[in-house]
Amino acid sequence: MSRKLVLIVIDGLTPQVFEDAVERGTAPALGFLAEHGEYRRGVSTFPSLTPVCLASIATGAHPSQHGIPGLVWYDRDHGRIVEYGSSFAAIRAVGSRRAIRDAVITMNRDHLSRETPTMFETLEGAGLTTAVVNFTVYRGPVVHRSTLGSIVPAVEGPSRFFYYSLFESDRTGAPLAIRDRSLGSIDAYAASVGRWLVTRDGFDFLVYYLPDYDFASHAHGPGGAEEALARSDAAVGALLDAAGGGDAFLERYEVILCSDHGQTGVREGVQLERAFGDLALLSSRGPHYDAELFVAASNRVAQVYRLPGARTGVEDVAGRLEGDTAVDAVLFRAGDEAVVRRHGEELRFRPDGDGAWETSGDEALLSDPNGFERVWQALANPRAGDVLASAAEGYEFADIGGSLHVGGGSHGSLVAGDSEVPMLSVGAGPPPPRIVDIAPSVARRLGVEVAAAVRVA
Ligand SMILES: [Zn+2]
User: Fold this and answer.
1) What is the pTM of this model?
2) Boundaries of CATH 3.40.720.10 in the chain?
């Protein structure tokens, strides 16, 4: 009998913070795993925002295929703003019932493409038992009713499904998942459920998602969230302890540990709407019948959507964004080419049909990690904005609720700091180079055949 597999995702953990913690011995559980594993830096997808990245981890696909474009976007089919939770203020601005419904229910049921099966669908289809703790892209074959009853719609998830106390496939005795230091934390909830699952050996594949670190790193900046890292480490340690210690744990399980994206420091925040001050913009405050554009900004990325009847063209939108000091790169499609404008220069590219790129302009303009693939795949998403803006170093774009993390950390852009992730494999083969390689690696390790995941164009 081959071993089972545990995927641990620590949201927002940068490679540097992971490497330092291992080096200094400040995170004993992570250190133990690193000591027994093989490590490399991996690359996320773009935009490097959690719902996009978790969808890429769950499906092995980029946004062009899985369909999740960002934390906030404009749904052209239904003529409405979708906001998954850029911040508490953003959730309030669009209406908390709707934002929570979109993030918890609609994203998985309606927005995540049915053409990109999740690991939970693939593995359960092969007769394996999968388990999810708090991972927000959870779609699977088993219907679960909410612990809150019929006010929350039933969802389709993996066999064992634990989602912030809202869905619990089994009674574990875990405390409520509340983001409050005095009452507990989300990672403490995860630890309690994880302990229960490992004690029973109740899965073939477990995704163990720890969001507390990202939350703290937004507040204190990358590298300033040691206390949160200690809690994430304790949550990982709880799994090892439940098996009777690290060695016993590794006899039973292979491990992949990673994050979904990095973070970089924020010195200044801007309202990117300032580039369109003379135009009518769609806002969260209700219908605006003559609105031309919607600026979907969140963290360090923005997507500008031209609304039906917009007179302002793509070139005009791109030109205005290029002129803003807070913008590093402007990205859009022109015919069958992707266009990158950066530092007053332009690069155009498209797939050459042989797995490489046909380019015109200076290729060094897109030297970000896996830049060509990630930009192409973001722009090829039918739900992407007409023009994307990746933030300049140290800048953040205010979200729909006006929220910023000035003095703290943020992510979403193309640059290495936002895009690189720690990638550790303990007994699970070579560490995957990209987050989209995780799903096929997991399937292979568990003996399940999957079709080639990433399509280039
Ligand atoms: Zn974040």
Assistant:
1) 0.96
2) 4-68+112-265+415-445
